[in-house]
Amino acid sequence: xxxxxxxxxxxxxxxxxxxxxxxxxxxxxxxxxxxxxxxxxxxxxxxxxxxxxxxxxxxxxxxxxxxxxxxxxxxxxxxxxxxxxxxxxxxxxxxxxxxxxxxxxxxxxxxxxxxxxxxxxxxxxxxxxxxxxxxxxxxxxxxxxxxxxxxxxxxxxxxxxxxxxxxxxxxxxxxxxxxxxxxxxxxxxxxxxxxxxxxxxxxxxxxxxxxxxxxxxxxxxxxxxxxxxxxxxxxxxxxxxxxxxxxxxxxxxxxxxxxxxxxxxxxxxxxxxxxxxxxxxxxxxxxxxxxxxxx
Length: 295
What we know:
Elements: E1 8-12, E2 16-19, E3 24-27, E4 32-36, H1 42-49, E5 53-58, E6 68-71, E7 84-87, H2 112-122, E8 126-130, E9 147-149, E10 162-166, H3 188-193, H4 213-223, H5 230-234, H6 239-255, E11 263-267, H7 272-277
Parallel strand pairs: 1-11, 4-5, 4-7, 5-6, 7-8
Antiparallel strand pairs: 1-2, 2-3, 8-10, 9-10
């Protein structure tokens, strides 16, 4: 009796999959991700770039949101029919900016805990994003148990630390030392408006920020958010962050459909069919078996 060979699964960057024991190609459908408290779509752009079909929900109209948008309450919007959920509850109640004299007496909603309860009940992989002040501490036991990302991790000229709590595992990239100062002094308002910095070791003098149209446009391009207005940009999540998180999440979703015992190999390029469809001069005749594009 011939022993049955173990199933080999090759997964390509384009989302295609090839299974050895069936000798079949599968085009992985784009998983649907619900983007709660979506704002103008910074997080959504990153998830889209990672391969998700994104649907945004916010209680304020977002005419510049780049994907499907629904006006509604994120705390009551139906969660059924989605493969994953991202939520960015309002950060004002957790931010250091609430210590500003004109803000310290304001009361902001603290929605991380009720949001977490909703997402846990949904039973799908989720991501909750917020600022450093939302972390779990002795004084905030209901805070986020979260990893964090920084622009420096992706070679970008800004810091903007953001924290991501998930119910699945992901690895945080290495964090390079901060070599530049965004804004010298104690003016928190100015430091909030200024986003990017110049060459290492130099202090931003306000030439890169939100103060003029040209400066705002340069900052928006640097962050990959060129459709946003200044107020939207000041609160946005850089797409590089959620593309990184989304890529890891995509692997989690894909692995959930792979049979136990299968040997999985991830190919860091598109398959021959997708490359041909994009106009690349690959193989004149599509192969019966996949090629390893890394070779």
